[in-house]
Amino acid sequence: MVYQIASIGSVLMTPFGEKIRELRQIHGISMADMAAHLNVSSAYLSQLEHGKRGAPGVIMIDQICALFGLIWEDAEDLKTLAALSHPRVVIDAKDLGKDAMIAANLFAQLLPRVSEEEARTMAEWLKTRLDQS
């Protein structure tokens, strides 16, 4: 699975937000109907889709999976997307070694300047490396 940030007009969407919007469209569910089913506001769902809110909690993700009938791999994929869609990421480097701390700081400085293709390549490498752990 390739993870990337989508753009709707000039609004960026997280991978999780993009998937939620796709599921709503496939199932013909409006944002207002989904919000009512989940007992949240439409504004909250809009913020989730557009990366203005961090990923929802496990219970909310389970409710979203139930709403769209997602089971097994599809449900796990949605949970993975949620975990990888935090719009603000913080790396606590205080307990890292010197080289790891330098790498974290360089990455934070460089990432805003890389192309989407470079970011995709890095994300694929990081995902592969994570799977090996």
Uncertain runs with pLDDT below 50, 5 residues or more? 1-10
SS-based class: mainly alpha
**Order of helix and strand elements from N to C terminus:** EEHHHHHHH
Q: CATH homologous superfamily of the largest domain?
A: lambda repressor-like DNA-binding domains
Q: Please state the second-level CATH architecture of the largest domain.
A: Orthogonal Bundle
Span from first to last CA? 18 Å
Envelope shape: elongated
Question: Approximately how much helix is present in the residues?
Answer: 55-70%
Task: Briefly characterize the structure.
With 133 residues, the protein is mainly alpha-helical.
Please provide a written account of the structure.
- With 133 residues, the chain is mostly helical.
- The protein has two domains: 6-83, lambda repressor-like DNA-binding domains (434 Repressor (Amino-terminal Domain)); 98-132.
- Helices cover 62% and strands 5% of the residues.
- It is built from seven helices and two strands; from the N terminus they run E-E-H-H-H-H-H-H-H.
- It has helices at residues 15-27, 31-38, 42-49, 58-68, 72-83, 98-110, 116-132; strands spanning 6-8, 11-13.
- It has a two-stranded antiparallel ribbon with strand order 1-2.
- The chain is elongated.
- The two termini are 18 Å apart.
- Residues 1-10 have low confidence and may be disordered.
